[in-house]
Amino acid sequence: MPKKTTPKSALPSSTRVRLPKVFRDARGDIIPLVDDTVMRSALLITSKKGAVRANHYHKTDWHFCYVLSGEIEYFERPVGSKRKPKRMTFKQGDMFFTPPMVEHTMLFPKDTAFLTLSRNPRNPAAYEKDLVRVELVKP
After folding, report:
1. Does residue 62 belong to any structural domain of this protein?
2. Does any domain span residue 9?
3. CA 109 – CA 71 distance, rounded (Å)
4. pLDDT at 5 over 70
5. 7 lies in a domain?
6. pLDDT tens-digit profile of 45-77?
7. Which of 80, 116, 117, 121 supports an S-S bond with 64, CB 3.0-4.6 Å?
């Protein structure tokens, strides 16, 4: 059976992801985060105030990040660029997308919890094989 992949047209064309309308009724809310996208990993990550994550890029992997609580200062630039990285802030309820071959770093000005939904599996061997470490932002 051929491996199922997500067509590029189904992936966001910008970092900040605009979420579709929330379905709300008397029972509560349903917030569609990612539909029609093939993923092999879903992680809940917590980060302490002052922590730094990433400072790397992925050769083939991509990921959506949805902020459950706290705040993420996110920095990105294309692989190999010498320009200053673009800085964005994401707060509770925000979602962002990182494609392959984009250097990225996350700084946490507050204790934060977020979901990461990824194309590739995140077991240590697969993750490290696809990862290239960089020092985009110094801790």
Report:
1. yes
2. no
3. 6
4. no
5. no
6. 999 999 999 999 999 999 999 999 999 999 999
7. 117
Per the structure, the complete domain to which residue 124 belongs is given by 14-133
* pLDDT class of 138 with cuts at 50, 70, 90: confident
Where are any strands of DSSP class E within 2-139?
16-17, 23-25, 28-30, 41-47, 52-58, 63-69, 71-78, 86-91, 95-98, 102-107, 112-118, 131-133
Note the pTM of the prediction, 2 decimals: 0.84
Number of domains the chain contains: 1
Any domain includes 91: yes
Q: Which CATH number fits the domain that encloses residue 111?
A: 2.60.120.10
Q: Which residue has the tokens 């990040």?
A: 65
